[in-house]
Design a protein that fits this description.
Blueprint (H helix, E strand, L loop, with lengths): L13 E7 L20 E7 L2 H12 L15 H5 L5 H10 L4 H8 L3 H18 L8 H9 L4 H7 L4 H10 L5 E5 L12 E5 L17
Antiparallel strand pairs: 1-2, 3-4
Helix pairs in contact: 4-5, 7-8
Length: 215
């Protein structure tokens, strides 16, 4: 069908864009981020929660990063005060070390809404790490996937393997759903929608029939 320009689409998705810095490739460059243009590109991820989209974006911008990982950088208050290309992971380390939201707000001036969302990721990671081997429940697995954790991350938290976690997830029917975004703001029929995968849904927006050709 088609929709009219007066139709207001529902904003049931979240988009996160993260610049790619690659500052280490440039000689004598300062790692502090300000108003000058230093990024060499950016990624854009789509999810149905900030946490999900944020962790997707972190994996997209650096293939060696699995998500919001507190082990990548040490806790450093100077690293929290100064915006750099590494501050995201210094913030993860600080949350894992028990820094309060108020303390982090004083140091970073990052809005508390974002700090609470990032704290959700660290708290769930710590919950998963406290489980005994083989104690991962379907409920916790669903919660982890809805917050954007990949199978590799979950496996490392519960002392298992990526293959074992994926096998358990598929057997438990914890699978992503295909959702779509109207990219033309309903001005005319949308035929080239953005498609994205999410675990924060209960049905597909698009059904792929048989006979497709894999490119």
């Amino acid at each position: 069908g088609s929709t009219t320009a007066c139709f207001e689409p529902s904003l049931d998705y979240c988009v996160v864009k993260i610049p790619r810095w690659d500052l280490a490739k440039f000689a004598r460059v300062c790692s502090k981020i300000g108003s000058s243009m230093k990024s060499v590109g950016e990624v854009m991820s789509i999810g149905r929660s900030f946490e999900e989209a944020f962790q997707k974006a972190l994996r997209m911008v650096d293939e060696n990063v699995k998500g919001f990982d507190p082990s990548l950088q040490p806790v450093c208050e100077d690293g929290l005060k100064e915006p750099t290309d590494k501050r995201t992971f210094v913030l993860a380390a600080a949350l894992a070390a028990g820094y309060s939201i108020d303390k982090l707000y004083e140091l970073t001036k990052i809005d508390r809404w974002f700090l609470h969302k990032l704290k959700n990721l660290i708290e769930l990671q710590q919950t998963l790490e406290s489980l005994g081997q083989g104690m991962l429940s379907r409920e916790l697995l669903v919660q982890a996937k809805q917050l954007g954790f990949c199978d590799t991350q979950i496996a490392s938290f519960v002392k298992s393997t990526e293959i074992a976690v994926r096998k358990f997830r598929e057997e438990a029917k914890v699978l992503p759903f295909v959702k779509q975004i109207d990219t033309v703001a309903a001005e005319w029929p949308a035929v080239t929608n953005y498609l994205y995968l999410t675990y924060n849904a209960s049905a597909h927006d698009v059904v792929f029939g048989g006979g497709s050709t894999m490119v």
